[in-house]
Amino acid sequence: MIYHEDKPSGLAFPIIVILIAMVAIVGSLVLSSGHPASARVWVPATSAGP
């Protein structure tokens, strides 16, 4: 008689990869929205006008 071994379905690896990607996306959004940078424009003194 031949016994078939139960093989894992392989579903755990894709779920882990998706969860890591979601955490990375949320983390990057949190880090980028934490410190809003103000826009700075440099205007030379000679072109500022009289």
TrEMBL record:
The keyword Membrane applies. It comes from the Bacteria. Keywords: Membrane, Transmembrane, Transmembrane helix. The chain crosses the membrane at residues 12-31. This is Uncharacterized protein. It comes from Rhizobium hidalgonense.
